[in-house]
Specification:
Layout (H helix, E strand, L loop, with lengths): L2 H67 L5 H24 L1
Helix pairs in contact: 1-2
């Protein structure tokens, strides 16, 4: 083999190596993008869960407020109304958003 032929082979090998490096860099970038998307989805779900817990606690606070503002014989009716409101909200959320 001549020096020119060896130089051509070296150039071909170098070009293939650079192509492989670009391919692996692209795969790494795609994996990072997927991981960021999964992390964002998990953070969104966590935020939704925290907000739902806060709304549930707000509902209990409203029940206490309404019970305190009404006569003591009506406190059971107020509690039942708030539980019914919560049940209707859960079923509506499930039917419209999750289903």
């Amino acid at each position: 083999m001549t020096v020119a032929e060896l130089q051509i082979l070296v150039d071909k090998l170098q070009s293939k190596i650079s192509q492989l490096e670009l391919t692996s860099k692209g795969a790494i970038k795609a994996t990072e993008f997927r991981l960021e998307a999964v992390l964002q989805a998990n953070l969104d779900t966590f935020c939704l869960l925290i907000c739902a817990i806060l709304v549930f606690l707000m509902q209990a606070g409203f029940m206490c407020l309404e019970s305190g503002l009404s006569r003591s014989k009506n406190s059971i009716n107020v509690a039942l109304k708030n539980i019914t409101d919560f049940g209707i909200a859960v079923v509506t959320f499930w039917a419209l958003v999750l289903h």
